[in-house]
Design goal:
Chain lengths: 274, 274
């Protein structure tokens, strides 16, 4: 059934994927969106591939009940380890954040040296390295896990002395490796852009997978003839439905989420997936 | 059925509770122990009371299958929010880490001013405050959440400049409040004792709930006639069975856990509770 008015489904381990939703809303303001944050089981970045795959399948099954036309895996860890399984298991169009970020980094680098920062599970998976090498095998890719970045963002210490010290420690080896492009391989990291840029210097280009993923969503919807055109054809603008589901109680998600989305969050329902 | 050879059950959200197990082994070396770390759903400290209670019930049900004679809730967050529910729901002897720590702090303070540090959910619950006030309502209790302490411990940055800066920021108000006793209200925090003591100064006594909990376990087992005497009666020493269960794959638990337990960890099985 081809129905372009169906919603987009987006899931993340928690609030980080809201940075992806934010970019999708910017590029595709007419689309209805359903966002699922698995807040009762977050974070994914310290869990095993096996467990993250299990959670990703459960999240996808849940969103499919709402007749979504496309799924965005808006979590780097889940994208890194579960995308192939999800593609095999489910028959809907699927976009992860890794491929978009990898492609953008490959275009951006001039010296052929790209750094990737992310959670332990994302870096261990080498998903970015594989995605970049599949575009250009001559590029050197250097990965660095930054486990404290997520808790620092959640604490709200963004452009902060302590955060800059932590960034300094994590990023020194990447700086010594003379990369010219650095992929922010976790949806929390765009909130640390300023601290990371300060440590890396202006010569290093930061790649925000959220923006790249949104462009890719628009491209795929266009190619599949699934773009929602109803808004642009009509004179009376109505705000499309935006629904949010979380697996833990909504309070914290509502409070912290608006910082990630850049607007107030309404309509958050608690659901049980476990 | 009174059988003093049955094992002790211990659960925690992950590895932190191993600091409690370590003290139990020290005091009660003959007892068999079953430890469950809910590593697929950790941490508990940022989750809601509702979700932590649900997980605690599932953990208890799992351990009960192994015919345990006593349950230790070796997680401050789980103890803070779920102990009353567990006591209502299950009929076995139950010990949490809060009451033991609260009692020890009440004995230790001279100026009647006690600080509590812990996760957000533990501090929000005011469980320590209630436990201390029930012993002595005149004591002033000041709580302070320290969300970055757990990730810092897991990163292994223990006696580290960055950790001391973070501790400085979290603990300044407690220092200004002139407390003389500080409860380490999270099983990860004993690993930061040295950094915390440096910030608080030698005048402040740190209370480690793990040690206090182990004493309370011995006391309760003695009072109930459930102490395992088989080892001390026999001339041939056999090491009692120590089993470990985790909900995520065991690798990380085995690697990190030995730092918390102070000895190598064997016999870790993955189980599914969700």
């Amino acid at each position: 059934m081809k129905n372009e008015k169906r919603p987009l489904g987006i899931f993340d381990s928690g609030i980080g994927g809201l940075t992806v939703l934010k970019e999708i809303i910017k590029l595709l303001p007419e689309e209805e969106t359903l966002y699922l944050g698995d807040t009762a089981r977050l974070p994914y970045g310290t869990k095993s591939e096996e467990t993250v795959i299990k959670y990703s399948i459960e999240n996808t099954r849940f969103l499919l009940k709402y007749n979504i036309k496309l799924l965005v895996v808006a979590c780097n860890t889940a994208s890194a380890v579960s995308l192939p399984v999800l593609r095999k298991e489910f028959s809907l169009p699927l976009i992860g954040v890794i491929e978009a970020g990898a492609r953008a980094a490959t275009k951006a680098t001039k010296n052929g040296r790209i750094g990737i920062i992310g959670t332990e599970t994302t870096i261990r998976s080498s998903a970015y390295t594989k995605a970049i090498k599949s575009v250009n095998p001559d590029i050197t890719v250097i990965g660095q896990p930054c486990p404290l970045f997520v808790p620092l963002v959640e604490e709200g210490w963004l452009n902060d002395d302590i955060t800059i010290s932590v960034a300094g420690r994590y990023l020194t080896s990447l700086r010594n490796d003379r990369i010219d492009t650095l992929v922010l391989g976790c949806t929390h990291y765009p909130l640390l852009k300023s601290a990371i840029q300060k440590v890396m210097g202006d010569g290093v280009r930061l790649i925000d997978s959220a923006e790249e993923t949104a462009s890719e969503v628009r491209e795929l919807l266009t190619n599949l003839g699934l773009i929602n055109l109803s808004g642009s054809e009509s004179d009376t603008k109505t705000t499309p439905v935006r629904r949010y589901f979380v697996t833990d109680v909504p309070v914290r998600f509502e409070e912290q989420g608006s910082r990630f989305l850049g607007e107030k969050i309404y309509k958050v329902d608690k659901v049980d997936l476990g």
